[in-house]
Amino acid sequence: MPQAKNSRRLNTEVIVALIGAAAIIVAAIITGLFTLLHSLIPHFGGSTSPVPTASSSTLTSLASCSSGFSDEFTQSSYDKRWQWLSDGNSTVRTVQGSLSISASVDQDLYAGNTSAPKLLQPIQGNFTVETLVDFTPSHTYQGAGILLWQDSKNFIRLEHGYGDLGAIILEQEINGSHQKLVSPFSKDAAKIPTAAPRVKLRIQRDNAIVSAWWQDPSGDTTWQPVGSTQVAFNPSIMVGLAVVNKPQAPNPDNTGAPITAQFDYFRVICDKVSHGVVLFLP
């Protein structure tokens, strides 16, 4: 009897050991499958292709901005901390509580021509910026709005513009490669038409994610998503306002006249502002 009991005990120990070994093997298989699937499934709204980078620097997590300032443009001149960057005969001035920026013909922000007038301030870390632009573009291409600027080959534009229709546009140039994410042309799938003469624009940097929204203050005052993109800009960049005046087909203004946009304010928020889900753009 003791021998039978010992045999049963031995069998039990063997079974327990086998079950333990099987559990380890199953866990390893599940972990391997999960890792494989994660590498094959595209990220939400994106793809498995590498995220474009603006430099060789690695960007993992940034603190909220420690610099940056707001300007309501109510003084006789804009804040002296702004930096005015422009080629040509463009102008900037405050007029009755708003900022007026004019752009001469052929002042652009596109692949080799970044001569458009820019009013910029340095900023570091994560931030949200907002403006209200009073502007009625009517020819290809005219635009005015917010500019995130690292250098002449790396920037993001959020504008009220005109291609062959009035629209909200979102474009980026990364390492000299320009991409229209949301277009002002009717033939393109990604477009946000608007005939509103005054629009609010908002753009947010959250580490490597840059998201954009817009609003028609005369109608629905909720913020509408424009889109998001992944870009590893340097921790310290510049942000501000810009106006583009580049006559081109299909509806150029051939008069040679400058264009002017009015900005009611420029506000910097260092805390993250929640707007819900914004889809990634291809």
Descriptive notes:
- The protein has one helix spanning 2-40; strands at residues 83-85, 91-95, 98-103, 118-124, 127-134, 142-151, 154-162, 166-174, 177-182, 192-193, 198-206, 209-215, 224-230, 236-245, 259-269.
- Strand 7 (154-162) and strand 8 (166-174) form a beta hairpin.
- It is mostly beta strands and 282 residues long.
- The model is unreliable at 1-10 and 28-59 (pLDDT under 50).
- Helix content is 14%, strand content 39%.
- The strands form 2 sheets. Strands 1, 4, 6, 7, 8, 9, 10 and 14 form an 8-stranded antiparallel sheet that branches. The protein has a 7-stranded antiparallel sheet with strand order 2-3-15-5-11-12-13, with no helix packed on it.
- The protein folds into 2 domains: 1-41; 83-269, Jelly Rolls (Sandwich), CATH 2.60.120.
Task: Describe the structure using short key phrases.
single chain; 282 residues; mainly beta; Jelly Rolls; 2 domains; 8-stranded antiparallel beta sheet; 7-stranded antiparallel beta sheet; 1 helix; globular; disordered N terminus
Helices, strands, pairings?
Layout: H1 2-40, E1 83-85, E2 91-95, E3 98-103, E4 118-124, E5 127-134, E6 142-151, E7 154-162, E8 166-174, E9 177-182, E10 192-193, E11 198-206, E12 209-215, E13 224-230, E14 236-245, E15 259-269
Briefly say what this structure is.
The chain is mainly beta. It contains one helix and 15 strands. It is globular.
